[in-house]
Amino acid sequence: MARTVAIVNQKGGVGKTTVTLGLASAAQVAGHSVLVVDLDPQAASSWVLGADPAAVEHSTAEVLAKGAVGAAIVESGWGAGVDLLPASTRLQVKEHSGSKDAATRLRSALQALDGRYDAILIDCPPSLGNLTVNGLTAADHAVIVVEPAALGLRGIGAVADIVDQVWDSFNPDLELAGVIVNKMPAVSNEADRRYEELARIVGKRAVWQPAIPQRVLVNQAIADRRSLHSYGSRAADLTEAFDRLWAKLRRVTKV
Ligand SMILES: Nc1ncnc2c1ncn2[C@@H]1O[C@H](COP(=O)(O)OP(=O)(O)OP(=O)(O)O)[C@@H](O)[C@H]1O
Ligand SMILES: [Mg+2]
Predict the structure, then answer these.
(1) Cβ within 8 Å of residue 158, ≥6 positions away
(2) How far is ligand 1, taken at its centre, from the CA of residue 218, in Å?
C-alpha cells in the first residue's frame, strides 16, 4: 500500500515545498517511485516539477470537484520515478468552498492508485483551511515542517490540533508521523535552543533526524527547476539529509 503523507504548516515559507521535493528527489535516486500532489494554489512544486500552472487542464482542483485522478497525473520534468498531480490557480476557490465530499473525493482518487507508487506526497498550502483539511483527509500520515525560530514554533500547536480534528471528524487512519526541522543554520545558539524547545513540546522522538541545513543551493534548485540530487557533490549535505529523511519516512509510515 502506498504511503500517503501530507506535508503541512500554516506558516508560509518554512519549507513544505522544499521538503516535498527533497523527499521526492531522494526517492527517485533510491529507485523508488512517488507521486507529488500539489494542493497549493501558488503551485510552486508543480512549477519546479515542470508544469505550467496556467496551462494545466486537469489539476487537483478538478480532482476535488469531480474525483477522477487518472487524466490529471503527468510525468514530471525530473523523469522516471517522480509523477505529478499539478495544482492550478483554480484551486484558490476550493480554499473557501470546502465540503466533506471534496475531501473524500481526493482520498478515494488517491486510494484508487494503490500499488502504483511507494509514496504519495501532498504539498499543502500555508493555511489551516479547507485545502489543508482536504490534504489531511486524503493522507495516512502528517509531517509538520518547522523552522528553528521562536515564532515558527508558536504555531505548531494549532497544526497539531487540526491533525486531531481531521482524525476525529473525517479520517481515523490519520497519524502525526513527525516533525521535520528545515533551514538549520550551521552555527546558531538561538536555533539550537529552539531545536531543544521543539523536542520538549512534541517529544524528542517526534523530531526527525537530521535537520535540513540552510543552504543557498535550495533556492538555486527551485529556480532551475531541478532536483537536489542532480547537483551531485555540490548538494552533498542536503541530499544526505533527505536520503536519511526518506528512509525514516519509509520506516515510520510502513503499514
Ligand atoms: N534549507 C533551506 N535553505 C535555504 N533556503 C531554503 C531552505 N528551505 C527552503 N528555503 C527557501 O525558503 C523559501 C520558502 O521555501 P518553501 O517554498 O519550500 O516553503 P513553503 O513552506 O512551501 O512555502 P509556502 O508556505 O509559501 O508554500 C524558498 O525561497 C526556499 O528556496
Ligand atoms: Mg509551498
Answers:
(1) 10, 128
(2) 8
